Amino acid sequence: MKKYVFLCALFCFVISAVLGFQSHYEPIEEDSREKNKALSIRESIPVTFHDVVMKKDGLIIYQYYYTKDAYTKEQAEVIPDFLEGLNREQLQGIYNGWQVVYFSPEKVILRCSIEGRSDEVYYIGVYDGYVSVFNEDEGRNLKLRDKTEIPLKVLPEIEQIQIKEGICVIGEENLVKLLADYSS
Predict the structure, then answer these.
(1) By residue range, what is the domain housing residue 129?
(2) CA–CA separation, 18 vs 8, rounded Å?
(3) Residues 55 and 87 in one domain
(4) How would you label 146-180 residue by residue, b for 16+ Cβ within 10 Å and e otherwise?
C-alpha cells in the first residue's frame, strides 16, 4: 500500500513538472523571433561620440572652479566657427586640461579647476560710517573697493553688528544682491 501511494505521488509530481515546463517554455512565434533579432542587432551597434557634433548656433560655457573658496565662475559665448562640427573627443583634444562636463550639439560645458582663490571674494564692512566693499590684496590685507551710499545706522542692529564684524561674499552677483537688500 505504501508503495502504491509513493508511486502515485511520484507519477503526479513528474506529470506536473512536465506540464509546468511546457507551459512556461512555449515555442517562440516567428513574429517575436524577428523582434528579438532586431533588438539584438540594435544592442550590438556601438554608440560613439563621433555622431554628435557641435552646431554653429550652439552655446559653450566655460566654468572656472577656484579650489580655495569653492567658487565657480561661468562665462558663456556662442560656439566659435573653428569648433563647429567637432565631436566630444576632438573638443577634448583641443581643450587639454579642461573637463567636458556636458556635450550636446546645442550646448557644451567645459570646466577647469584653478588652485587658489577667485578674484571675486569681497568683504562687506564699514568705512566712514557707510557700508563699504573691500577686497583682499596679495598680502591678504583688506583694501577699500567701493564706498556705498548706505549709512550703517539706517540698518537693523543685527545687520549693523554683522557688517562691523565683516561679511565675506563670493561672486559679484551675490555682492550685488546683498547690497540691493541693504539699500531697500
Answers:
(1) 121-183
(2) 15
(3) yes
(4) eeeebebeebeeebeeebeeeeebbbeeebeebbe
Of 115, 123, 116, 163, whose CA–CA distance to 138 is shortest?
116
Tens of pLDDT, residue by residue over 85-138, are 889 998 898 888 899 999 999 999 999 998 887 878 889 999 999 999 998 877
Is residue 79, in this structure, part of any structural domain at all?
Answer: yes
The total number of structural domains in the chain stands at 2
| 29 located within any domain | no
Q: Global pTM?
A: 0.55
Radius of gyration of the chain from Cα atoms?
34
C-alpha cell at 104: 550636446
Using DSSP, state whether 181 is helix, strand or coil: helix
For 135-144, b/e burial (b = at least 16 CB within 10 A) is eeeeeeeeee
Domain-embedded: residue 4: no
Q: What length is written for the chain?
A: 184
